Each structure stands twice: as structure tokens, then as C-alpha cells.
Amino acid sequence: MNLQELLPFLIPLAAAELILLAVTLRHILTHTHYKRGTRALWLVVAIVGMEFIGPILYFILGKED
Q: Considering the entire predicted model, what is its pTM?
């Protein structure tokens, strides 16, 4: 398998990852209250854990409705 065969799968996955990260960062920066942790903690988790894990953790554990 070469990269040319994987591109149809990688491009939508990368786009979804970037959109999820952008939505997460926007939410973190515009809200001041979180269930657990602080703004700085969630920024680090979202950026370092960028490959879906960080943003998903934020929406599960940190986002306060």
C-alpha cells in the first residue's frame, strides 16, 4: 500500500480532526467555567492530544453546559 491509495481516507480524517480542534479551541477560549480543570489545562490537553483524543476528552470531561 502506498500513500496514493491512502489519500482518499486520510484527507477527510485530517479535515475532521482540524474542524474538531477548531471547535474545541473556540469553546475553550469563549467560556470561563469548566467541570474539571482550568482553561490552561484544557488548552494543553486539546492541543497536545490533537488527534481526536484531546478534544473529545474536553467535551466529555471539561465542558460545562
A: 0.76
